[in-house]
Amino acid sequence: MENIAIRIEDLHVRYKDLAAYSIKKMLLKGKSAGGKSFHALKGISLNVQQGEILGIIGKNGSGKSTLLNTVGGIFAADSGIVDLGGRSVSLLSIGVGFQKHLSGRENIILSGLLLGFDEKTIREKMDEIIEFSELGAFIDKPVKTYSKGMYSKLAFSITAFLETDIILIDEVLSVGDEHFKKKSSAKMKELISDENRTVLIVSHSISTLRKLCTKMLWLHDGEIKMIGDTNVVLDAYEQAN
């Protein structure tokens, strides 16, 4: 019997392109004012089985990150269904989720609470997270003082040690310096090798996707172009691009 971890039915996501719209016009005309509506996902439907490692590929603007953010609860769908069956989910994407005026330590607690962990569990994992992140004394400084590399290390470490049923990875398979890249890559392989954990990976690295993924989704202009065997889909994608 199939054990579906992620069920997506007729998913549509739109958002406003406000780039060419002035703040003055927006204030004068109110919330309904705005630029053109961009249809990022156009009726996506698919099932992801528990334990599956689904790679997602496509050109910039194809809807890859929008799909991950919607599954992760960052974006709200305009219509359609995203059903995780009550499973816990974490999104590993640099730039998402931290309160920059809070310290690294405080952000670990906040991130853990948002992932559904109780404070006792988070504090039990705290030392492991801090040690893995290699941030040292910076862990008690505001995140707004962090370099991009430090920010990446903390984000990765939280996801690596506060393990959820579903992990969503957006172009962050290895972060930081060479030493940390090797360490984070090994940890990520350990995490996704758990046969009960479901993983969605967005990446432009064909070689990485070939190594890690059990199935592949090709998105094009917000629609499913192809889904199926990893090598078959990636071969078709490479021939087309």
Tag the structure with descriptive keywords.
241 residues; alpha/beta; six-stranded mixed beta sheet; three-stranded antiparallel beta sheet; globular
Question: What this model shows, in words?
Answer:
- A hairpin with a 2-residue loop joins strand 8 (215-220) and strand 9.
- 37% of the residues lie in helices and 27% in strands.
- The protein has a six-stranded mixed beta sheet, sandwiched between helices. The chain has a three-stranded antiparallel beta sheet with strand order 2-1-4, with helices on one face.
- The chain is of the alpha/beta class.
Could you write a compact summary of the structure shown?
37% of the residues lie in helices and 27% in strands. The chain has 241 residues and is of the alpha/beta class.
Uncertain parts: none
Q: How many E strands?
A: 9
Give the overall silhouette.
globular
Proportion of residues in β-strands: 25-35%
Computed over alpha carbons, the radius of gyration is 19 Å
Mean pLDDT: 86
Residue share in helices? 25-40%
The helix/strand series, from N terminus to C terminus, equals EHEEHEEHHHEHEHEEH
* Distance from first to last alpha carbon: 37 Å
